[in-house]
Queue: 4 jobs
Job 1
Amino acid sequence: MKPPVIIGLIVVIVAVIALVVSQQPQPAPAVSLCDALPTFNPIDGSSITELKTEDLTVGTGAEAQTGKTVVMHYVGYLANGTKI
C-alpha cells in the first residue's frame, strides 16, 4: 500500500474510535429525593407545652359544639422531623 492510503486509513480508524468513545453513556448525576422537600428544623421536644392549632381554611358551617361530630384533615411533624 502507498503511504497516503495508510495515513488515510489510520485517520479514519482514529475518527471512528473517537466517535464510539464519545457516545458512551455517561452516568446520571446523583439526585436525592430530599432535594425537593422543604427544609424542616426540629425543635427540642422538652420545650413543647401545648398543641398549636391554626385554621388554614375557615369553613362557613356551624361552629363545633361539645358532643357533635367534626371532620378535619391535619398534618403533623414529630420532634425529629418525621411527617405524620
Note: The chain has one helix and no strands.
Job 2
Amino acid sequence: ASSFGYTTSPPGTKCIFGVDARDENSHCILDGGDYGSMGWCYTSSDRSSWGSCGDGCPLYGANKVLQERIQALENRLDEQAKDGIRDEIAAEDGEAAATAVESTTGAPARSAHAASPRGR
C-alpha cells in the first residue's frame, strides 16, 4: 500500500527512531491518532516507508509513567506470590517434620511405658 508517496510496511516491521524529531529517538509519533491509536513510525532511514505502531512499541509521557508503575506493581505481585509459595512449602515441610517427630517420639514412649514399674 502507499500513502502520500510513502510505502506502508507490513506488520512486525521494526521502527527506526531518530529519523523524525517527533520520535525523540525513542518512541512512536502519535499525530492525533490519525495513523493508528498507538501512533506510527518510519521503518526506513530514508523515510520512504512507515508503519502503524502496536502494543509492543515503546511508550512515552504519561503513558510511559503508567506502564512503569504497572510493571513495578506486577513485579511486586510476582515476588509476593513467590514468597507465598515458599511459605506454603515451608509450612508443608514443617508439618511433615512435626509428623515425623511425633511418630519418633511416640514410639519410645510406648515402649518406655511398658517397661515402667507399672508394667512389671
Note: Residues 61-107 form one domain.
Job 3
Amino acid sequence: MQQVGPWLIRDGQGGGKRVSAATALPGWQTDDIALAESAMAALNQPALFLIRGGEDALDTALA
C-alpha cells in the first residue's frame, strides 16, 4: 500500500477488487482523482475506488 496524494493505493496482486481499490483520504478534491487513476494504471490495475458510507461527494465525482 502506498499513499499518492490524498489516496491510499493498494497493489492487489490479483487478490480481488476490494484489495485493489483506492481509498480517499481526508481533503481529496475532484482534480485529485487523476492521481489515483495514474497510480493504479502504473500497477497495471483498473481504476477502482472504494466508496465508504458518507462518501457521497466521491461517489458523485466518480459518476
Note: Residues 33-42 form the longest helix (10 residues).
Job 4
Amino acid sequence: MRDCRVYLVARQLSNSAQQRFHPCTSTSESYALLYKLLVILALLLILTQQIAVQALLRKVRWGDY
C-alpha cells in the first residue's frame, strides 16, 4: 500500500513539473512562426530593392546620376 502511495505522489510531482516547464508553443509551431518571419523579411527585402531600383532609374532618366 505504501509503495502505491509513493508511486502516485511521485507521478503527480512529475506531471506538475512537466506542466510547469512545458513550453508554450510546440516545435512545429515555432518553426512555422520562423518560416513566416523569414517570408516577411524576404518580401521586405524585395520591396526595398524594387524601390531602390526605381529611384535609380528615375535619377538616370532625369540625368541626375
Note: The first helix runs from residue 2 to 21.
